[in-house]
Amino acid sequence: MRSLPDNSSFADRNKRSGTAMVEMAVCLPVLVFLVFGAIEAAEFIHLKQDLAICTYEAAKIASKGSKVNSDVTTRFNEMASAKSMNNATLSISPTLTSSTASGTEVTLTATVQADANYSLPMRFFSGISLTKRVVVSRQNI
Q1: Separation of alpha carbons 72 and 93, rounded Å
Q2: % helix / strand / coil in the chain, to the nearest 5?
Q3: Tens-digit pLDDT profile for the chain (141 aa)?
Q4: Any idea what the Cα angle at residue 20 is, between residues 17 and 21, rounded to 5°?
Q5: Dihedral over Cα of 66, 70, 72, 77: its sign
Q6: pTM over 0.90
Q7: Taking each helix axis from N to C terminus, what angle separates 69-82 and 7-62, rounded to the nearest 10 degrees?
Q8: Sign of CA dihedral 27, 33, 36, 39
């Protein structure tokens, strides 16, 4: 015949389950915060890299002697569109024309808002504007 367990083992089990619930209530929000924070940080780094790639691609076009501002801006916008970047802008100094002298330093400054490019509800990097500046020398090739 089976003997019934004493009441003290039930009390111990209830204490252990209550302790586990308290530990979960404390740890779960921290773990969720860490996971979403890591995802958001990875998305921010990815956006920063995409901006650099788009700017470097535009700089390749800007370094060629026959290209003008519209060619450089078109290439930047093509790359930004391919990377699904929203609200990315590019400024070029000095203005490029077909007669811009060889050896002229051309500065490209690309900017994108972090808010316009996130899909997550958490916004650790809200209000941040990323900027990438590249300087190339104009070559008449």
Answers
A1: 12
A2: 50, 20, 30
A3: 565 555 556 556 666 677 888 888 999 999 998 998 888 889 899 999 999 999 999 999 999 988 999 999 999 999 999 999 999 999 999 999 888 888 999 999 999 998 888 777 666 777 889 999 999 999 876
A4: 90
A5: negative
A6: no
A7: 160
A8: negative
